[in-house]
Amino acid sequence: MEKGFRTIRTVRTEDIHMRDPFVYFYQNEQTYYLFGTTFADGCGDKDPVFEVYAGRDLSEWTGPYVAFQPPAGFWGVRHYWAPEVFEVEGRFYMFASFKGGIGENRGTGILAADHPAGPYRPHSDGPVTLGGSECLDGTYYEDGDGQRWVVFCHEWTEIYEGKIKALRLSRDLKASYGEAVTILNAADMDWIRLFRDPRIEKEGYLTDAPFLHKARNGELLLLWSSYSVPNYSDAGLGGYTVAIARSASGRIEGPWTHDRNLLMDRNAGHSSLFRDRQGRLRICTHYPDTPHGHERPLFLPLEETDNGLVLAAAGRF
């Protein structure tokens, strides 16, 4: 693994400041690789990179190593956010958000490597999300027909009512094509609160962090995050949440319905799923979401029911 300018250390999970964590368990090495938003805009004279930590037990990690060092002229110049890694036909693909230069939009690009820890190289022909639009948090899904998809957020900062959409990907994962499928409109949820950002003097309904999981009954579940009104459900903190939408057909095209109960309402979110060394399903999330600067990765056990997911008793926090 490639070293960056930061000192390589062995650290506990609670000592890693990270948003948008993502764990890839590599069976061949029996090793967990932890990615996330850690170095989004660079520092001093150092350009932004994506980093990775390696660990054997989800509690102690060595890193950070460099997973992606952008080459000169790369289209993404800042806001290196939310990397996710997927194995496809023996290669590893990182879906990650980048912001382009002046006059260019934010989007999800695809990087590729021969090892889950990298080094990754640019793969897609620029962003694979909607051209000319502000998009982020792209994730990967391959349906039962072998069609490959990128599922992503169309940003509230552009369209006020944040949405989650999907685009078909070419077989080689170089580009997207066709009309976007709209999975959800955040403004339709009765639990969501209007999000305001005084830094840009805008407000709207925020969508973050789509992630897909096939349920036991064949339904397709979509985890995503936003901010809830106080005292809605679960712990009722009125902060960052994890919600579930579901497609009874098991297909991206839907139709989609939305669970009234939130999976988590505990000032934690931007979640993905993975199976640990013992094959148990876990949710990977950052907690707390606020105050900013205190975010740490958190790995909680889940129980799969006949038609969904619930936090295991051991995962309460």
Q: Terminal Cα separation, in Å?
A: 34 Å
> Would you report the number of β strands?
24
Order of helices and strands: EEEEEEEEEEEEHEEEEEEEEEEEE
Based on Cα principal axes, name the global outline: globular
Secondary structural class: mainly beta
Please give the count of helices. Answer: 1
What would you call the quaternary organization?
single chain
Helix content: under 10%
Largest sheet: 6 strands, antiparallel
Strand fraction: over 45%
Report the average pLDDT across residues. Answer: 95
The rounded Rg comes to 18 Å
Name the poorly predicted regions: none
Question: How is the topology of this model organized?
Answer:
Blueprint: E1 2-3, E2 9-12, E3 19-26, E4 31-37, E5 50-55, E6 60-68, E7 78-88, E8 91-99, E9 106-113, E10 121-122, E11 135-142, E12 148-154, H1 156-159, E13 163-169, E14 176-185, E15 195-197, E16 202-204, E17 208-214, E18 220-225, E19 243-247, E20 256-258, E21 269-275, E22 281-287, E23 296-304, E24 309-311
Antiparallel strand pairs: 1-6, 2-6, 3-4, 4-5, 5-6, 7-8, 8-9, 9-10, 11-12, 12-13, 13-14, 15-16, 17-18, 18-19, 19-20, 21-22, 22-23, 23-24
